[in-house]
Amino acid sequence: SNPSLLILPGDGIGPEVMAEVRKVIDWYGENRGLNFDVSEGLVGGCSYDEHGTPLTDETMARAQEADAVLLGAVGGPKYDNLDFSVKPERGLLRLRKEMDLFANLRPAQCFDALADFSSLKKDVVAGLDIMIVRELTSGIYFGEPRGIIEEGNERVGINTQRYTESEIDRVARSAFELAMRRGKKLCSMEKANVMESGVLWREVVTEVGKDYPEVELSHMYADAGAMQLCRWPKQFDVIVTDNLFGDLLSDAAAMLTGSLGMLPSASLGAPMANGRPKALYEPVHGSAPDIAGQGKANPIACVLSFAMALRYSFDQGDEATRLEQAIEKVLADGVRTADLLGEDGVTPVSTSEMGDKIVEALTAS
Ligand code: NAI
Ligand code: MG
C-alpha cells in the first residue's frame, strides 16, 4: 500500500501554501509513480470553528497512524481572545506532545540566488546546508523545581535544567541517524564547562557515537558554537543541542539565510514499526494574517517541508533533492514572491504562480 500523509493546512496562509504543495504531490504521482494516501484534516482555529476544539481526538488518532503529518500554520487575530485551553496553538502543542516529537530539525540552507539576502558576506552563506537538531520535550523549559518563590525579603525566579540519560540518548540517536544520511559529521553543543547536564550530555552523546563509527563527532561549548555559526557556518553539517541552546542557535542559524518564507522544519519522534520516525513537518512561519487571502504568501517553506518528508519519512532522498533543485532553478530564474524582493523593481509572482513555476521546473528536471 502507499505511504500515508496527513495534511493539516490550518489557518491564514496555511491553506494557501498547502495548495501549492498539493500540486507538487500530484506531480510526483503522475510523473514519478510516487503515490501517497493523502488525507486532510482540521487543526487550529478552523477546527475550533467546526468542532469547538483546536484538534479533535479523531484527527489526533489519524496523526498517530500516518507515516507523516504535514502542517501549514495555525492561529490568527480572530482567535486571540479565546480561552487558553482552546487556542489554535494548543492543537499544534497537542500533536507534538502526544506524538512525543523530541527532536526538532531546523535546516539552514542557502540558495545561491538568495545569498545577497543574508546579512553575512555572500561567500560565507552561498551553498550553506546545515541542520540543527534541537531537543524539544525536556530541559530547562520543563524541569522541576520551577516557579517564583519568596526568599528572605525578595522573590527568586527558578528554572531547572534537567536531562535524563535516555532523553539525551534518543535525541543523539536521531542526530546520528541524520548525519548518516547527510555529510556524516555531527557537532554536539552544550556547556560542559559550567553545567552538570552538559557533562552528562557530552558523556552520553560520546557513548551513542560508538554505534556510529562512520560519523565524525565533535563537541563544542554552545557559546563558542554561536560564534562559529556566524563566522563560518559551512564548517558544520549536523548540530545537536538541548532545548534552550537549540532555541537560540536555530533562530540565529535560520537568519543566516534570509526570509521566513523559505524555512522548513521537522519534528521527529521514536521509530515506528516501519523503522521511520514519527514525524510532523511544517514551515517555521505562522499564519501571516497580514497577508492572508491575498495570494502573496511564499509557498517555498511549506514545499521544502514536504521535501524533508520525502527524505526523512519516505526514503526518497533523490526525489527530495530533485525538488530542492527545482526550487533553486526557479529562484535562479529570478522568480520571486513579494517577501523575496530586493530593491530592483522585479514584479512579484503570486503564491499560485510560484507553485506552478516549481512544478514546471520539476517537469524540466
Ligand atoms: P508569522 O510567521 O505568521 O508572520 C511574521 C511576518 O512574516 C509577517 O509579516 C508575515 O506576513 C511574514 N510571513 C510569514 N510567512 C510568510 C510567507 N510564507 N510568505 C511571505 N511572508 C511571510 O508570525 P506572526 O505574525 O508573529 O504570527 C501570526 C499568527 O501565526 C499568530 O496567530 C501566531 O500565533 C501564529 N503562529 C503560528 C505558528 C505555527 O503555526 N507554527 C508559528 C508562529 C506563529
Ligand atoms: Mg525560538
Describe, in plain words, how this protein is organized in 3D:
Its EC number is 1.1.1.85. One of its GO terms (molecular function) is 3-isopropylmalate dehydrogenase activity. It catalyses: (2R,3S)-3-isopropylmalate + NAD(+) = 4-methyl-2-oxopentanoate + CO2 + NADH. Homodimer. The structure is a single chain. The radius of gyration is 21 Å and the shape is globular. Helix 6 packs across helix 7. A hairpin with a 2-residue loop joins strand 6 and strand 7. The protein has twelve helices and twelve strands. It folds into two domains: 212 residues, Isopropylmalate Dehydrogenase; 127 residues, Isopropylmalate Dehydrogenase (3-Layer(aba) Sandwich). The chain is of the alpha/beta class and 365 residues long. Bound molecules: 1,4-dihydronicotinamide adenine dinucleotide (NAI) and magnesium ion (MG). 1,4-dihydronicotinamide adenine dinucleotide binds next to helix 4.
List its traits:
two-stranded antiparallel ribbon; metal-binding; 2 domains; alpha/beta; 21% strand; Isopropylmalate Dehydrogenase; manganese; binds magnesium ion; ten-stranded mixed β-sheet; 365 residues; single chain; binds 1,4-dihydronicotinamide adenine dinucleotide; leucine biosynthesis
Shape, please? Answer: globular
CATH third-tier fold name of the largest domain: Isopropylmalate Dehydrogenase
Total beta strands: 12
Q: Could you give the distance between the termini?
A: 27 Å
Domain module tally: 2
User: What can be said about the biggest beta sheet?
Assistant: 10 strands, mixed
- Return the average pLDDT rounded to an integer: 95
- Strand arrangement across the biggest beta sheet: 2-1-3-12-11-4-5-10-8-9
Total number of helical segments?
Answer: 12
CATH superfamily of the largest domain: Isopropylmalate Dehydrogenase
Oligomer: single chain
Give helix and strand order, one letter per element, not per position: EHEHHEHEHEEEHEHEHEHEEHHH
| Regions with little confidence, pLDDT below 50 for 5+ residues | none
Tell me which CATH architecture of the largest domain applies here: 3-Layer(aba) Sandwich
CATH class of the largest domain: Alpha Beta
Helix-strand category = alpha/beta
Hetero groups in this structure are: 1,4-dihydronicotinamide adenine dinucleotide, magnesium ion
